Amino acid sequence: MKWRVDNIHPVTNGEPAAECTSVLVADGRIAALGSDLSGYRVERVVDGCGQWLLPGLIDLNCHLPEPGSDRGGSIESETRAASRGGFTTVCTTPNTSPVNDSGAVTHLILDMAARNGHTRVLPVGAVTRGLQGERLSDMVALTRGGCVALGNGGHATTSSRVLRRCMAYAHTFGLRLFLQPENASLASDGCAHDGLVAAGLGLPGIPQVAETTAVSELLMLAEETGANLHLGPLSCARSVALVQAAKEAGHNVTAEVGISHLVATEQAIEGYNGTFHCRPPLRTEADRRALLEGVESGVIDAIVSQHRPSDEAAKLAPFPETQPGLSTVESTLSLGLERVAAGELSREGLLQALITGPARVLDLEAPVIAEGAPADLTLIAPEQRWMPAAGSLFSAGAHLPVRDRELPGIVTLTAVDGRIRHEHGGNGS
Amino acid sequence: MPDNSRRLQLTADGELRHFLAIEGLDKPLLTRILDTADSFIEVGERTIKKVPLLRGRTLVNLFFEPSTRTRSTFELAAKRLSADVLNLDIGTSATSKGESLSDTLLNLRAMASDMFVIRHSQSGAPHFIAQSVTPDVAIINAGDGRHEHPTQAMLDVLTIRQHMTTFSGLRVAIVGDIQHSRVARSQIRALNALGVDEVRLIAPDTLLPHDPEALGARVFHRMEEGLRNVDVIIMLRLQRERMEGALLPSESEFYRMYGLNREKLAYANPGALVMHPGPINRGVEIESAVADGPQSVILGQVTNGIAVRMAVMSMAMGGQLNERQSATGEGVASP
User: Fold this and answer.
1) CA neighbor of A333 nearest in space, from A391, A276, A401
2) Does pTM surpass 0.90?
3) Which of B120, B124, B215 is facing A199, going by the closest CB pair?
């Protein structure tokens, strides 16, 4: 389909252009850019109403619950939510059921995504078989089958020896590793940040060293093996400092942070609020500030949704037994814009971490609004506000990081490969 | 948390309707519980040890974790209040049949239960039940994970009040495994709310929570310093698992450093009370001569346990019924 969007401000490097312009989309690419494109014959014209046109957002860490149980949505529902959140590409975690540790599961995910998906779906395969941390998965076969990286899906790999071999093997074939750093024996039976709030509630804690020792170990193993390592989501100030030092030393490492960790702290679990049971746990205000600074300085390359949809029942239990994770993919951009409005993050820093940063991690072509660029596009009305509410979301996940709070930024249109997949007020594709 | 805990436990009029934690409860309310308990002590001394406050009410003792003493004192307390009591030892295999905690409780509520006494290995389980599952059934926390054991703390402060008459000016030391102790968390909160001068914690770092001073206590690593000028010494029970978890080298080394013997007791003020929530490990936390000595009030604690439990049960039932009454018009007088 050939279509045109008029009256938009293209955003480059976080800065919307001063002049309004039009964009012509054809064959999945931006065919032309200019103030008057009325000479081209198009099937559809969208009025951009002076809104911002961004290259599509990329989420490096989004759990799509298929294959798996039917209790936390589907690829259809969650990519529809992602599309509404402005994402055009999501990387889905390997901890599906069964685990994505074989070409067959990868194929199944890609097939379902092609049939029912509303965004581009890039699977992350399991780095070890069954995510058991014992035997290497068929990494090359998974990559050839369409996985863009191999990850631990939040399951800490307990054996340093296995980790070292994963890295050496991945390096041999130039494969990318997405690893969530956690020292399993230090995290033990913990379920919340080992700090004041957990101490008061009597919840077993996960100390910061459970993350920082794992970050150190992974960085050293990556340095030694030469592996292409992407770390995260990070939750501690000290982890940011460690990644910064590694980057300054010239090591091949990138990092991500989940939006929840930029928005909330350990305070959120007061009163045993299981909604905010997260892994890694929400930590202190000092950690949150350091993570925001890490995004701003570029030490942290990507903000991810760390979307973990689950039904009501998943959080209806005593806190330690609740399922960790929040349903965030629909509100990630808005939560980020809210931080920008609060003066905690620059708009440029936010958009870099949602667009160019993750594209760089995946070695994709640099996302721009320019002639010839892929037509993965997100149109947003930055000043308009909306209220996330459980009943009105596309995601099947019932647990939102905000309730009864208006957020800035409505995604009015999302296009993937030149195809419009979401329109605000419309019925999507 | 204090606000949240307060809101959940109290009716709009500030009456108890659940008893989940000491946190959030203020001195007047805690004093009212102690006064009510005092009045029930007399009931225990009668030939017919019964009052009809909970007659016709059904109480379910739900112990998801084994317990003999706490459960039996709750049962006795309920029977002295003339309630019908159902004991369910669900053990750790509550979900072995695949039923969730919520479903178990909803089923029990459907049997017209008025009160659940709950012990659970997960911190916050009673909060969760009171908040999200059966808010219209009075919930009494009989110990949840590492969080709180509020009736134990109330019986401890009742014992202290009986011997010391007032809380102000007192220094209280709590010794042992603070980190894993729900009893200690409740005691620290109760003692601070009632206005003691100082709460001290004496333990090695492996048995202390993160930033223990934030709980409202001073930390000491050595008995010699920690017990100096102290009026009350509360010894906590040491679980054998602590050795397996590499938190302590051995029971004998713990006893050498933290066990209360006559020599260490001498650091405290003359006549300092010696307390222990039980069951005692003689020769691990405490020397027999001290446990059975003149300064020990350990057995008095057990007797007080029944009176305190009668107090919180009758008060919570009263608050809960008044709330039901205003909601549905069910006519019941509060005790």
Assistant:
1) A401
2) yes
3) B215
